[in-house]
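agent> fetching stored inputs for the flavin-adenine dinucleotide docking request
agent> found them:
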Amino acid sequence: MSELKIYDTVIIGAGPAGMAAAIYAARAELSFCLIDRSYAPGGQVLSTYEVDNYPGLPGLSGGELSDAFKKHCDKLGCPFVTADITDIAPGYIAPNGFFNEIDLKTRGLDSMIDLVYMISTAEGDAYLTRTVIAATGASHKKAGIDGEEDLTGVGVSYCATCDGAFFRKKDVAVVGGGDVALEDAIFLSRLCKKVYLVHRRDQFRAAKSLVTKADAIENIEFVFDSVSKKILGNSNVEELLVKNIKTGDERALAVSGVFIAIGITPATGLFKDLVACDEGGYIIADESGKTSMPGIFAAGDIRKKPLRQIITAAADGANCITSVEGYLMK
Ligand code: FAD
Ligand code: NAP
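agent> prediction call returned; pasting tokens
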């Protein structure tokens, strides 16, 4: 182990937060690597067909914007590694040059002079680093509707841009009332015969501009105050059963596809035993990215914040590098 290099920082996750951090780390001449389990960097942005709110680059597809971020990283020589991180262990380098793990349950933080982290991958590799940037983002939430799990992949989908084309000229339903649900409904309305947008309240959470746009599209029907009870079908989705919570009426929507767009869950599994998280599982960190654990910084959708967007994720990545530089100088 003694021959292992110790990085200034390892950035985990190559979405907008991680790639922005990498750009700033390269310019700060830190020794670092950027690790993502996916061969295609970009994170959640890859699953959007159009990004219309990133300054200066209106109308790019998620793929194009991610590609622009990656090209910028490549231009600065950011080292990109494809690997699935499975563990992060705090410790120190003993006089014999070996890494010694610290058991956080039995030792206090004040004993952690020259704290070092060992990052392990599913592929069997390990990286030593003085700091870690947690930029693992978030993933789609499951709705827990009866039939959802069994029919996933045969009509139930969590990504309209990935799977929409399979439902050309068919009737589909979108479940949710946030930006993603509205965007999905608008996207699907161009491919599908009819799109039911099923929301549990009578007000959308989504941006007003999206609601106005969807409202003007003829083949989108808003199904308000309705909870999804069951997704039915033998080998493929055939019906979505919804119940109006105000009237108690049930309605069977004859659809071939059900797109679930009910929000995201932070990907904090790697960090939850190391840093403080809020009740929703998001890492507690302010704009500086500093967490409750020295040397671990959080950027992007993974941290507690009011607005989860590409621009705020990228800003977090940049801020984290300033914090890392400050930490390393101590
Ligand atoms: P993510 O984008 O989630 O990236 C996290 C990365 O970490 C992923 O690449 C993942 O593979 C990697 N990772 C996770 N765990 C591990 C692990 N254990 N080991 C290695 N790698 C790991 N925002 C906008 O501003 N405008 C939009 O138009 C817009 N459209 C959107 C459309 C959709 C469908 C969705 C889902 C989101 C949209 N957003 C949009 C929100 C935006 O995509 C997110 O705010 C942003 O991607 C968050 O960036 P991030 O870097 O924090 O995390
Ligand atoms: P979100 O904003 O959290 O909205 C989730 C929606 O799903 C809410 O309307 C919620 O209803 C509903 N919901 C939650 N749990 C449900 C359940 N069990 N059953 C039925 N409905 C349920 O999530 P999102 O739309 O996925 O967006 C994620 C993040 O990405 C947000 O921060 C969003 O702003 C961002 N984003 C931005 C853009 C853009 O800027 N163009 C585009 C896409 C995404 P309630 O409203 O009743 O709570």
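agent> quick read of the result: The chain has a mean pLDDT of 94.
agent> awaiting further instructions
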